[in-house]
């Protein structure tokens, strides 16, 4: 398995994300979300995405195939996303989740009130309309 490589936003990727219960309505051809996948051959084992450039980045679309949950792949994908965001100059990584808040808290993400979202994060479709107001909003400072 290659750990992680860029992946196109294509029907196979969208089906994987949708099958994991994640929003895909804004992941069209003109999307600014960058997706990365862990694969074995042509089989997607996991996906993670990043949205926005600059100091504040939104972690998007973390999904791991059912048979590999608990294997550490999700942790590896989040680690990859953190490094990629930091290398692009981000100082903070944000996310919204309805199901995995405890997973992210174990990875040192902390809860924030949605009113604390930077304007760029608050303006994303995921924040503004795709994720319900009941979603946990979490943050992790990147770097020292």
From TrEMBL:
Stretches assigned to the N-acetyltransferase domain: 1-128
Pfam families linked to this entry: Acetyltransf_7 (PF13508)
Encoding gene, per UniProt annotation: arsN2
Name this protein carries in UniProt: Arsenic resistance N-acetyltransferase ArsN2
């Amino acid at each position: 398995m290659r750990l992680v490589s860029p992946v196109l936003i294509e029907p196979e990727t969208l089906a994987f994300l949708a099958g994991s219960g994640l929003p895909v309505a804004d992941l069209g051809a003109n999307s600014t979300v960058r997706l990365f996948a862990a694969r074995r051959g042509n089989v997607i084992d996991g996906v993670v995405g990043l949205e926005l450039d600059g100091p504040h980045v939104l972690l998007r679309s973390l999904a791991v195939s059912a048979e590999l949950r608990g294997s550490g792949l999700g942790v590896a994908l989040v680690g990859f996303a953190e490094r990629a965001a930091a290398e692009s100059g981000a100082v903070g990584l944000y996310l919204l989740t309805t199901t995995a808040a405890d997973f992210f808290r174990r990875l040192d993400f902390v809860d924030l009130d949605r009113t604390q979202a930077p304007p760029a994060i608050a303006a994303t479709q995921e924040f503004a309309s795709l994720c319900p107001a009941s979603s946990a909003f979490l943050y992790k400072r990147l770097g020292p």
